[in-house]
Amino acid sequence: MRTNEKVDFSKFGNMFQQSLVQLILLDRTYSDQIGEVLETEYFDTKYLKVFAKLIYDYKEKYQVHPSVSLMASLINTELINEDDLIVKQVRDFLVRIHSDPEVRGEEYIKDTALDFCKKQKLKDAIIKSVKLLENSSFDEISDVINEALKLGQTNDVGYHYIKDFEKRFEIKIRNPVSTGWDKFDELLQGGLGAGELAVAMAGTGAGKSHLLVHLGSEALKEGKTVVHYTLELSETVIARRYDSCITGTKLKDLNAFKDFILEKVKDVPGTLIVKEYPTKSISTNAIKNHLEKLKMRDVKPDIIIVDYADLFKPKKSFGEKRHDLESIYEDLRGLAQIYKCPMWTVSQTNRTGYNAELVTIESVSEAFSKCFVADFIFTLSRTTEDKNNNSGRFFVAKNRFGPDGLIYPIKMDTSNVSIKVESQSVDPSTLNGNPAKTQKDLLKKKYKELMGEK
User: Fold this and answer.
1) E strand segments, 219-342
2) pLDDT at 428
């Protein structure tokens, strides 16, 4: 018997309870699941009890899960009889959720809270069974225990058309990460967003790895956590390129300016993790496992950089390289969606892309179908003359967020990993015919071929 036992979440601390209520609001499926076993009295803080009760009262009345924006309205209309201090605490808590929707240690909090609540329900069922035992109500005892064991089971069947009604009207937040190039950010509506995959294509020796380092460096300057995977160059080589890009020091002079570089990079607000894997030795599963290890250490990437996708081995070989590559790109985009962050990678063109004045989608090596997987594709073109003059061109081949077929001249100095995009685009008709029309016609043709195969 537990007549004097205090049953609540107090032993887990206030941060745990705040995170739990936040998850109940943001995750409808989990809210339904724990709602079967949760008592709002388990929260030892009054404003959290009120907040949780507001959620479940609304769900019960309208059979719809409330959104964050709707909660603001409910606070103003449903808590008019509540103490002013409690209302203020509830409102402040909602503001914190809105400004920082991420919950650290989400899975632990979900599992721990659910386990605690289920145990309380089972204890209640056992206590009730003791009384039933006096009357030898064995069938009733079985029903009571079985019913308690069923509560709080996973009931995720997907997006519910009615219960998730409010979710359709929430403003989607992409949380884009800037490229550091104003023109590209404009094309991408602020930068590459969460769950999106972008691919830069170039010929051998054009500077693909330098390009990725630039993108990572810009994210670091914004205070982002960058996870950079390299399957071609060593971790220290990549790190030195970051040193050069961030400080403007030439790669050949890094050793001479070691102390200066340390002072500079210590002031960078972001976090960089570089992980090296041997070429063609791993599948995308290795990336997923590494990201899970980081997650256990409370490290959440804001942007993932993969140098580069074509160097993975497929999780399952399909016999043809083009199908293997398509599978790899699909897996990478899936990882971007799972970890809710943008992912950049590069791909090598075929021989027609080497020393070409303008690289278009026509120069894609092996798997053309990877073009359908990516959200944004641009190419880097650098002839021998361009390399001598520290120049080149970007061609926007595909853009799900705005216009494509645009060409931008660039200044690119690989000696200190400096890449700048000129503000004025080039008329496509002046280079290699009309690449904008060519790439669209080619996409249509290849899509029909692929659909015909399938």
Assistant:
1) 225-230, 271-276, 303-307
2) 57
